[in-house]
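Sequence, please.
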């Protein structure tokens, strides 16, 4: 059974704790919830999903997996105590946004580091998580991390850590783009005279159905577009407006700006 310590049991830490238990990656007896916030500690204790401790707890030394789920700005203060606590052969899995493997490895004086970038739907086990690792990790250790992360949705391993900046821009921030587009669809529906709740149902179900079509993989995206947009029809009127207003290019530019910002915010 995996012994797991989750350092920082806020929103994300708790999602991971519940996901690991749900898929029996660990058990409540082998799960340490390392949390400093008093109010949060009380709430976690009442859930009875693991032992609630602080970072000086001796039990961390027994863990083969240590998950870093504190805010990046809290990591430096935490590192000296954690460095003493973790055992040399454990795998440290960080989900801290923008915090590079080399920085974590240097602060913890530890070789086996994995850095992952999840997104919001992990809370529904429908997340998308990309991850990269420090060079010394064995295939077995990478598979172990893969098994952990896939309890929250799909995962993909990247050889090049720097690609996590593009991942942050695409799947990390991605849910917000879809919410934004959905909001635009609903606003348009309302402007055309639909009740807001009707526009919302139409937009949601359209997004869900379209996703499942794409996922079936029967056609390319261009073929799907062509199958909805007949010559001189309504869809073509909308798509040509998108083209005229430069929506495609704006989306590409927006994501490139998000990637640039991810690089600027990186903690090296
Ligand atoms: N939320 C997302 O969608 C998302 C997506 C991708 C990545 N991430 C990353 O996930 C990490 C966690 O995000 P979150 O939204 O879960 O943050 P959060 O809710 O603030 O959780 C972090 C928890 O760690 C606690 N903490 C801080 N220092 C600690 C220490 N020394 N020992 C033990 N616990 C400590 C915090 O307590 P206090 O509140 O008292 O400080 C807080 O309860 C961040 O690094 C973020 O970049 C989040």
């Amino acid at each position: 059974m995996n012994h797991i310590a989750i350092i920082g049991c806020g929103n994300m830490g708790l999602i991971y704790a519940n996901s690991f238990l749900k898929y029996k990656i660990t058990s409540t007896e082998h799960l340490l919830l390392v949390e400093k916030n008093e109010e949060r500690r009380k709430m976690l204790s009442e859930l009875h999903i693991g032992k609630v401790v602080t970072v000086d707890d001796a039990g961390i030394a027994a863990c083969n997996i240590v998950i870093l789920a504190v805010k990046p700005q809290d990591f430096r203060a935490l590192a000296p105590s954690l460095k003493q606590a973790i055992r040399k052969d454990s795998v440290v899995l960080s989900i801290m946004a923008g915090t590079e493997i080399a920085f974590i490895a240097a602060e913890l004086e530890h070789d086996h580091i994995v850095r992952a970038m999840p997104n919001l739907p992990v809370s529904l086990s429908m997340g998308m998580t990309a991850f990269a690792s420090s060079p010394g990790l064995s295939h077995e250790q990478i598979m172990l991390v893969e098994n952990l992360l896939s309890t929250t949705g799909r995962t993909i391993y990247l050889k090049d850590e720097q690609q996590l900046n593009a991942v942050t821009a695409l799947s990390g921030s991605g849910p917000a783009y879809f919410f934004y587009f959905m909001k635009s669809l609903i606003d348009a529906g309302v402007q055309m005279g639909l009740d807001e709740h009707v526009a919302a149902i139409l937009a949601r179900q359209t997004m869900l159905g379209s996703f499942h079509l794409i996922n079936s993989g029967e056609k390319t995206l261009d073929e799907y577009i062509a199958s909805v947009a007949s010559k001189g029809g309504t869809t073509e009127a909308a798509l040509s407006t998108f083209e005229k207003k430069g929506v495609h290019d704006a989306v590409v530019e927006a994501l490139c700006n998000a990637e640039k910002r991810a690089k600027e915010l990186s903690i090296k």
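The mean pLDDT is 97.
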